[in-house]
Amino acid sequence: MKKVGLTTTVPVEVLYAAGVTPVDLNNIFVTSGKSMEYIEYSETEGFPRNLCAWIKGLYAIALLEDIDLVIGVTEGDCSNTKALIEVWQSKGKEVIPFGFPQNKRYETMVEEVDHLMKCFGVTLQEVEAVKEKLFPLRQRVKYLDELTWRANQATGFENHLWQVSCSDFNSDPEKFHQDLEAVIKEIEARPAFPSNEIRLGYMGVPPIIEDIYTLVENNGGRIVFNEVQRAFTMAKEPMETDIYQMYLNFTYPYDLERRLKEIKQAIKERKLDGIIHYTQSFCYRGIEDILVKQQLGVPVLTIEGDLPGKADARTKLRLESFMDMLMDLKE
């Protein structure tokens, strides 16, 4: 079965309707155990050192692993993707571009999704049928989210992992569903976390720092809201929302204003004591930190990640100090 690499979340329903296997290249990058090897390969190919590690990882994975073609998101994600696509194509890799319309017009989204359906030879009816099949999975991930912030039984990392996996449903929706149900059953049997813990929200792209959730919990807190990961689930959409509107409502690819609105709602609903704003080194999204700190109304710790791996000593110290400050404020 043909494997289609994704540079970020796209209408995955189109791919499953076409009988191909979607593979989120980002998830391979952080779980492969070979992240630095991918980066080193890309740098030997000429990619500069002071370039986002994610881009170098995606480039290498698409060429070195069993990926037949790639869908590259040219609007609404990384600003480097357009150049990345050109380099892939120069190496003979087939790439299909897809853009989230920055004008946020329904008609433009129809054009983008229809183009994707045409590339894979599927109809709207087939795609909508897959959307209906995936709907219960999205709702179960939403339930796991509630086990995180409402029942206080799931960890921040579990919340992150299952939400971010909705980009491709781990390339196998049936197995994804089975594994998810086993995890939910185990979580439901746990006692709740202490009620006096520090409750944090996480905003920004999923972290390249692998132990950030553990560090928060080791310092008396828990991340009970993962902003971008939650957006990946599309779980807030009712069944009747069509495929075009669903991806038009997807907040990640669009302006910061819509994202901040949802984060403010989460701060109130989930009783968040503070926010961790993660930014990736050399990424334009770091500029958004100015507005984040101006508008959210709660303490914000900005953490910048560069290479994959555990947090460095400076990041650990800053996180510990932030948690101490929040504990003092809470008391």
Automatic annotation (TrEMBL):
Signal sequence segment: none
UniProt cofactor(s): [4Fe-4S] cluster
Keyword check for Iron: yes
Domain of life: Bacteria
Pfam family, one: HGD-D
InterPro entries: FldB/FldC_alpha/beta
Gene3D superfamilies: 3.40.50.11890, 3.40.50.11900
Keywords on record: Iron, Iron-sulfur, Metal-binding
Family in the record: Belongs to the FldB/FldC dehydratase alpha/beta subunit family.
Full protein name: Benzoyl-CoA reductase/2-hydroxyglutaryl-CoA dehydratase subunit BcrC/BadD/HgdB
Annotated source species: Alkaliphilus hydrothermalis
